[in-house]
Amino acid sequence: MSIELKxxxxxxxxxxxxxxxxxxGGWILLLMALGISxxxxxxxxxxxxxxxxxxxxxxxxxxxxxxxxxGTFGGQLAAAALEQTALEPDPALAAGKGGxxxxxxxxxxxxSADLLVQSYRSLGVDLQQLVQEDxxxxxxxxPQYWKWKGPDPAVDHRRVxxxxxxxxxxxxxxxxxRNHAEFAVGDVVVWxxxxxxxxDGARHIGVVVPGPGAKSHEKWVVHNEGSGPEWDDDLFxxxxxxxxxxxxxxxxxxxxxxx
Length: 259
Fold this sequence. Notes:
Blueprint: H1 20-41, H2 44-52, H3 57-68, H4 73-84, H5 112-121, H6 127-137, H7 160-170, E1 172-173, E2 188-192, E3 203-210, E4 219-224, E5 229-232, E6 239-245
Helix pairs in contact: 3-4, 4-5
């Protein structure tokens, strides 16, 4: 059986070709739309870029996850310090009452020494106990700024000069320099604050952490000047007088008396 196919006649107007003016008009409309979009969106670009490199909670969470995956103690310490920046700041200083494991300010309160002690404590390193035990054995190796009759486990670990001396005895002393490459996340840094009324009050301490977002290759710090933990680009804002790397199990080194 054969099938016969017949031609179907097309009835209607012949197809018209688009003129060059019509094609050009379409491109003009597209370019106008892009120009209007750029005019309104261009001011938002700096804001969006800033958000990628701003010290905000979103960037902090991303940094914390990356640091926890680093597999290093320094990374874990930097993550623990960054965790505290998410807490609501409270300038009140909640002094604790003695005993190892007590005597801390609440995480959202206190000063620079409290932030450091709490960061280490969250990793199972009790600086309060370690400082107390070392001071009991080597009291004359520690600063004698305060009128005391002996070590006070409730407050000794909350004094930056005592922590400074402890890290100088047990930590790895690293170059005090203004070269970012010499610092690693998790390093402990000690500054001398300007305009302090006494030497013991002039010292400040913090933890080196990565910068936020697009600035993660930079070395920033987490510290607390009394208004709550802060994550900022202050590594070289003050005079650096100490740079240490301290992990559990460190052994005592030769004591260097500080003036």
